[in-house]
Amino acid sequence: DSFSTDILGANNFNIDAFYSDDVFHIDEILTIIPYGPNKDDYNIWFYHPICLEDEKYQKELTEIFNFNLQILESFFPNKIKLFKLYFTSNGKLVNPPIFNRILLRQNNSFRIIFPDQPQDIKDEVIVEMNKYISSYPHIDYHFIDTSYLHKNNGNIHCGFKNIPKT
User: Fold this and answer.
1) Residue 51's CB: how many other CB atoms inside 10 A?
2) How many CB atoms lie within 10 A of CB 115?
3) What pLDDT, on a 0 to 100 scale, did the predictor assign at position 142?
4) pLDDT of res. 92
5) Would you tell me how many other CB atoms lie within 10 Å of the CB of residue 57?
6) Which of 2, 34, 78, 158 is the most buried (most CB within 10 A)?
7) Rounded average pLDDT per 10-residue block, the chain, 166 residues
8) Residue 29 and residue 99 in contact, taking contact as beta carbons nearer than 8 Å
9) Measured between alpha carbons, how far is 166 from 83 in angstroms, rounded to an integer?
10) SS3 of residue 128 by DSSP
């Protein structure tokens, strides 16, 4: 409908334009986290947007969020876990999002590497991950400082998947 295309800016997208750091990816706001060996053992971690410095922008973020959350919940009932994601008033992410994780799998064991977080978000991640591990101990997780990559418009998965030329 016109609401979804207008609010998401699709009517103003020019395929020939270079958007540089103004282009955002789904992996900035959403990720899949496994919690067991079976194909249905996963949750979708989704952002809960927060902009403390601009009430009007917070309202716009909330409208987009609610629209997208409703769609996700219709396809993935009881699979969505929300985590705070802080924005500046001009739409930049304040911290590296946890959704930019690296997931390594060997057989049915998982290692998940998250960008380090402010303590309140880190605590939420730890609680959630410990729930998974209590039911399926073949998961471990770590946090690493990715602030350098974040300041250069990237994050852990960007740096991880790039292979330098020799």
Assistant:
1) 21
2) 22
3) 94
4) 84
5) 16
6) 34
7) 38 52 63 90 94 93 93 94 92 86 87 92 96 94 82 60 50
8) yes
9) 39
10) helix
Q: Measure the CA–CA gap between 114 and 102, rounded to whole angstroms.
A: 7
In the structure encoding, which two tokens stand for residue 141, read together? 């997780």
Location of structure tokens 């909330």: 62
Q: What was the pLDDT predicted at 63?
A: 92
- pLDDT number for residue 143: 94
CA–CA separation, 34 and 48 (whole Å): 20
Is the CB of residue 106 less than 8 Å from the CB of residue 140?
no
- State the CB neighbour count (10 A cutoff) for residue 42: 16
d(CA 34, CA 66): 24
CB 157 within 8 A of CB 127: no
Rounded Cα–Cα distance for residues 116 and 98 (Å)? 8
Q: Which of 108, 106, 105, 101 is nearest to 143 (CA)?
A: 101
**DSSP three-state, residue 155:** coil
Q: How far is CA 16 from the centre of its chain?
A: 27
